[in-house]
Design brief:
147 residues, mainly alpha, 0% strand, Transglycosylase_SLT_dom_1, Transglyc_AS, Lytic transglycosylase domain-containing protein
Length: 147
């Protein structure tokens, strides 16, 4: 069985608080942090996304962030912006979680371009699969702990 303990447990209180404020399931945020950065705040993707939630600087600016790109490595900033973007995506794509996750990875335009479907990009399809699998594993573990 796969270890489903959140790797971002050092950030669990932060995730709980910020996700709660944004009305986003904190377990989804935990799953995304795991897939995006393996809970490494200093992570930088090959495309320039930064921090725990791998926020693109342009996306951050679109959300009103006026700081330096290096500030995206701050855990609070990353979780705050990442969950704010998830909120935007939930509003745009409703509760279609695979589309929300795909848009987080490939961009809203890519999801729209492909008829509100997961884009046929290998990276995005793998990302959606990995995030949703991690999310379901975390939900199952939480349900077991609640019994």
């Amino acid at each position: 069985m796969t270890d489903v303990r959140p790797p971002s447990s050092d950030y669990s209180a932060l995730v709980e608080r910020v996700a709660g404020e944004k009305l986003i399931d904190p377990l989804l945020v935990e799953a995304m942090i795991h897939v995006e950065s393996r809970a490494r705040p200093g992570a930088i993707s090959h495309k320039g996304a930064r921090g725990l939630m791998q926020v693109m600087p342009a996306t951050a600016r679109g959300l009103g962030f006026a700081g330096d790109d290096s500030e995206l490595h701050d855990p609070f900033t990353s979780v705050e912006l990442g969950t704010a973007y998830l909120r935007v995506l939930h509003k745009r794509f409703g509760n279609d979680l695979p589309l929300v996750v795909a848009a987080y990875n490939a961009g809203e335009g890519a999801v729209e371009k492909y008829g509100r479907q997961i884009p046929p990009y290998r990276e995005t399809q793998g990302y959606v699969r990995d995030v949703l699998a991690r999310y379901e594993a975390l939900r199952a573990a939480a349900a077991q702990g609640a019994r």
